[in-house]
Amino acid sequence: MQQGQGPDRQASGQGDAFERLISIVHALALILTPFSRRDFGSRSFRSAGLAVLYVIGFASVSASSPVFSFLWLWLLAVATQRLRTSQHARKGIVVHSGYDGFPWFGWKLCRGRSEESAYKAEAGFWLLASILALLIDPPFGLFLLIAAVGLLAFESYKRELDKKMLADMRDARIEQNHRAAQFRDAGPF
């Protein structure tokens, strides 16, 4: 093991458990994003099956008819987004296959300051909407609140992952500059 590396997460089983947790959080976020985003990547709905299981499970346990109605609206929204994604691919519009969609609704809320601001505004909107829904229909509000917390957690995870990737790229550049200087200083072989 190289210096600076931690224990192998895969060998201890932590990697698999963490990946499952991220899949669950992504599924919760995916319950809301088809309504407030567009232009998804081709693999962005990879956790849709888990999302369906959550919606059906929650609707069954809570016996909430708004949650069952939401399921049908959600399926329509996902189908619409998938169709839009395939139409863009046929037109040659290419986005990263894992792109979780452009937050058009959050963009309108924050008046187009930045995409990161739009993600934050979107999560804030869903949290507020879920709290208001709690007052009107508590089971449906709780359903939305859990999904909104999932969205917030997933966006926070992605932001931290991006920071780590940026730090890794900077470290790689520094290491390559150092190696290049070593070879320049060493002269010809």
Identify the quaternary structure here: single chain
Number of strand elements: 0
Range of strand content: under 5%
Secondary-structure element string: HHHHHHHH
From the N-terminal CA to the C-terminal CA, the straight-line distance is: 30 Å
Query: What count of helical segments does DSSP give?
Result: 8
Shape: elongated
Biggest sheet record: none
Mean pLDDT level: 88
Helix content: over 70%
Q: How many structural domains are formed by the residues?
A: 1
List segments where confidence is low: pLDDT < 50 over at least 5 consecutive residues: 1-9
Query: Which structural class best describes the helix and strand composition?
Result: mainly alpha
Q: Radius of gyration in whole Å, from Cα?
A: 21 Å
Polypeptide structure, described:
- The chain crosses the membrane at residues 48-75, 125-154.
- Keywords: Membrane, Transmembrane, Transmembrane helix.
- With 189 residues, the chain is mostly helical.
- The chain has one domain (16-174).
- Helices cover 76% and strands 0% of the residues.
- The chain has helices at 9-12, 14-30, 33-36, 48-62, 65-91, 104-109, 115-136, 138-186.
Which short descriptors sum up this protein?
elongated, 189 residues, mainly alpha
